[in-house]
């Protein structure tokens, strides 16, 4: 089975059987992916890098490092120290046939705008101005709150870049006040949009559509968003390894 990032600068092969998928809601996974991350796993002897010119690693803790594409920002791998396995985002695979989500972990760290399972909670009273940052802290900005309605996108592009699915809210780009943006990287997609991510750690931050519409990834917000997941779009492209059980509206395309 083959897999790759969005731009193709990282490609790999895995040989099954693959471990069931685990969805992780820890702060690190939410920062990196922009929502939350999901991963299967395979022993090293059944994993092979085919192309690695775009591969970058970020040491996220003393126990593990995270692999992403430095060109497009796709979140691809999680590599624990001292183990003979590597975790792989199923959204990067050519096919996720046969995979199922076995469990959700670090659910206590989930964002305030959704629940790992079931309907999202009502929005709370968040700050008038939201703070956002990448995982390594090289990129930091503020913007007006609340986040309001948040949309989960399951298109192939968002799935490949995030490692699972994206969740973002509309914002005025001019309203962002940057505290540090020296590590900002941008990737222009085939449709003319631009995705902003951290060149140092790979964290997904924002998307600017070809028509200028701008959205911020909910996972990059520090603390409460005062938002609520409102809908799922492009569900026709959703990964087959998980179900949508929150009762929210689902749109096949957009």
From TrEMBL:
<feature type="domain" description="CENP-V/GFA">
    <location>
        <begin position="1"/>
        <end position="115"/>
    </location>
</feature>
<dbReference type="InterPro" id="IPR006913">
    <property type="entry name" value="CENP-V/GFA"/>
</dbReference>
<keyword id="KW-0456">Lyase</keyword>
<keyword id="KW-0862">Zinc</keyword>
<dbReference type="InterPro" id="IPR011057">
    <property type="entry name" value="Mss4-like_sf"/>
</dbReference>
<comment type="similarity">
    <text>Belongs to the Gfa family.</text>
</comment>
<protein>
    <recommendedName>
        <fullName>CENP-V/GFA domain-containing protein</fullName>
    </recommendedName>
</protein>
<dbReference type="GO" id="GO:0046872">
    <property type="term" value="F:metal ion binding"/>
</dbReference>
<keyword id="KW-0479">Metal-binding</keyword>
<dbReference type="Pfam" id="PF04828">
    <property type="entry name" value="GFA"/>
</dbReference>
<feature type="domain" description="CENP-V/GFA">
    <location>
        <begin position="130"/>
        <end position="242"/>
    </location>
</feature>
<dbReference type="GO" id="GO:0016846">
    <property type="term" value="F:carbon-sulfur lyase activity"/>
</dbReference>
